[in-house]
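Shapes recur. One chain:

:::
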Amino acid sequence: MLHHPTAFLVLLAALVFLAIVVRIVAGNPGAARHRVRVLRWRIRLYLRPGAGYANLLELAVRWSRLRAVRSGGRSRPSLPGWMRMFLPVTAYAVRLGRAHFGRRVIASMEDQTLVLAAPRTGKSGWLADRIIDHPGAVVTTTTRTDLYENTAPLRGRHGVLHVFNPEGIGGLPSTFRWNPLRDCQHPAIALQRAASFTAATESTGMQDLAFWIGKATSALACLLHAAALAGRTMTDVYRWAHTIDDDEPERILSAHPWAAEGWLGPIQEIRKPGRTADSIRMTVTRALAWLADPAVAAATSPGPGEGFDVADFVSAPNTLYMIGTGREEAPIAPLFRAFAEYVHAGTAYAGSLQPHGRLDPPMLMALDEVTQICPVPLPHWMADSAGKGILIVAVCHGLAQLEARWHSAGARAIWDTAGIKVILGGVGDPDTLDRLSRLCGEIDLRRHTWTRFEDGRRARAVTHQPVRVLPPELLRTLPEWRALVLRGNLSPVVVRLRMAWRRRDYRRAKRAEIRRDNRIGVVWQRPTPVPAALPPQPPWRRPTGPTGEDTLVMGHPSGHPAGPHPHPANSDEQAARRGPHGSQPTPTWNSTPDTPRPPLPPGGVSVPRPRRPWDPPANSGDHS
């Protein structure tokens, strides 16, 4: 019967040893000695890191499902309170991860999010999880096809998958084409589209940057306006921008009855010899550098049924993947910015027509590598997009990237307007680490010191030492898949992020997916072609020709050049279109064939214009 006391003693020794290990490794977080190591181990063991972090009461009151149910009415006004009680929490809120003791951390859906993460730290996996859970339409930008591979099997079950990959990265073909000249027959749209192209070419090496960008915007807007009126393509705009003696845009603006007045000046300015004109032309040609790639140029010449309808896209949980090359000053960036602004403006307009004046469910713009391939006006979008039903998750590697793209004032605006800040481990910038550490605040640690007097007596003194709640070195060395979450006036929380590949539905979809196009692990679903929408009608009567035809847009009636119909390709044809290494496919469409262009009036002489709404009233007085 001695084995019973022996087993008891062995168990007691194991418990004592475990208690000693826990005390040494993850002991008192208030002790100043080895504090960073203690905090890191407590994070690994799902314990509260220490004083200054959110406690269980704050997690239950401010980060819980009940809080999300109460605040979910602002982001999803169409869902009543009783319905939010029974729906999944991701239908009206955002699940960020799990904090200490496994408590779920849930935040409001209407807060804009900024993610700071070093490369290869799991940001794409967490972003894919957020995309899968979103109840509405999603627009995502990336430099690889990993987001598509991780989200398409599940997003494709509820909506249509659209891919805009003009460069053919990863062998994934685009599913539609977009014409940047769409609606540019209206002067306001032409100015907005030109500003999108030129703003994406900002470089810190140019002097008087705002001056040259403004001049280039005016000149490019005139070229876009002329091309849209005459039914030309972006290839014609590219040619006009690189030649000095081609007066075709001037003749179009002079002869067309619906050309904006006073728009010849910017074009005539770039035709003059001199350094000023050369600098303006250089800025314009940089904004159109992506047209030098024939495959990218072909992606901007849609044929019938190949356009992109924003109103149809945001009406269902559809997904748009924008994939481009991620390098410094990527040539594709102006095109991606112009298209992203086109989608953003169309979404805001569609939301304004809904009963609550905002899009419901909201659209998510998951902008990975936002500073490289899609430099949208993030400071302005982060400030006012949430009220329109547009949520933004901007992902970058550090604050230095934001300052390099939007300068110091723009970076501060992005930081201030981000309601939720998610910072993963591995950030190596000392300034960023120190800023985040100071943002989390300080606490007073109690220290005990012993003093020996001359007579041999010893006395213990208690002092308080101010220390950072979050030491900078702790943030840099956060455990894998852990992130610091800062939100508004709440205490900081360290959560374990959930990666998309750890979801049960993701694993089931991966096991059941069909292998196609020699792409293991990708479900390919070509979206149903959406007819290209006609340009908006002007508020005045459109002019008609002698036989009753519409003469506002010469060429194709929708303002888009005609192109060949796309036809589905089998696996053999798709393999034949791939490059020599199988990575860069030839686009599924060819360049738009030359079509007969409508003749201009003889000698470019202007024809009498019909009166337009902005024209001043005719003077009925006598002229002497």
